């Protein structure tokens, strides 16, 4: 458990850094960290650690990088993200016994990105006045989000590749070290 908590904290730090440093919009470690936690760490505690990392990065983004006139503790869309990431975590946790190979991880990253795209933009359409509350506003909301989806899926695949490759290499080296000892 101690090693898993350290791993979750490491993921959280990478998540925070990836959201704070300059990057293309939505090209972050956010969704990849949720995927990794669901498939490898598997405990809800680690999902909570990552949600706290999202919150900390939001605090920095909203109050240090793009400060408002008053301190922002929680943005209006944060609870939607918590729900979406929670759903993705639960679904992947249930499927994790079937997801062991790199191709399956790729499909998990792509599927999670699709879920995030559809649900987050539905939340944008429902909760903002940016788009009309009719079919054309709904469609326009999704069309406007397409460039962000490209970055989201690219970031999720990139960071998932990094996380799982590092994990598999560590596991392989740990097993080799135990055999040699």
Question: Can you put this structure into words, describing what you see?
Answer:
Helix content is 79%, strand content 0%. It is an all-alpha fold and 181 residues long. The two termini are 23 Å apart. The mean pLDDT is 90.
Largest sheet: none
For the termini, the CA-CA separation is 23 Å
Oligomer: single chain
Please state the structural category. mainly alpha
* Proportion of strand residues: under 5%
Shape: globular
Helix content: over 70%
Short characterization:
Helix content is 79%, strand content 0%.
Helix and strand topology:
Blueprint: H1 2-20, H2 30-41, H3 44-65, H4 78-95, H5 102-127, H6 135-180
What distinguishing features does this structure have?
mainly alpha, 6 helices, globular
């Amino acid at each position: 458990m101690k090693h898993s908590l350290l791993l979750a904290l490491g993921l959280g730090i990478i998540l925070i850094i990836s959201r704070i440093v300059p990057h293309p919009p939505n090209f972050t470690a956010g969704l990849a960290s949720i995927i990794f936690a669901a498939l490898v760490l598997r405990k809800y505690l680690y999902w909570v650690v990552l949600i706290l990392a999202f919150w900390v990065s939001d605090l920095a983004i909203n109050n240090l990088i793009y400060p408002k006139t008053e301190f922002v503790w929680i943005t209006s869309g944060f609870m939607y993200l918590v729900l979406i990431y929670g759903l993705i975590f639960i679904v992947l946790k249930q499927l994790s016994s079937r997801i062991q190979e790199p191709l399956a991880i790729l499909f998990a990253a792509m599927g999670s990105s699709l879920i995030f795209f559809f649900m987050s933009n539905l939340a944008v359409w429902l909760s903002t006045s940016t788009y009309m509350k009719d079919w054309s506003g709904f469609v326009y909301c999704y069309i406007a989000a397409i460039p962000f989806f490209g970055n989201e899926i690219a970031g999720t695949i990139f960071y998932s590749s990094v996380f799982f490759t590092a994990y598999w290499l560590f596991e392989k080296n740990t097993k080799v070290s135990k055999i040699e000892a």
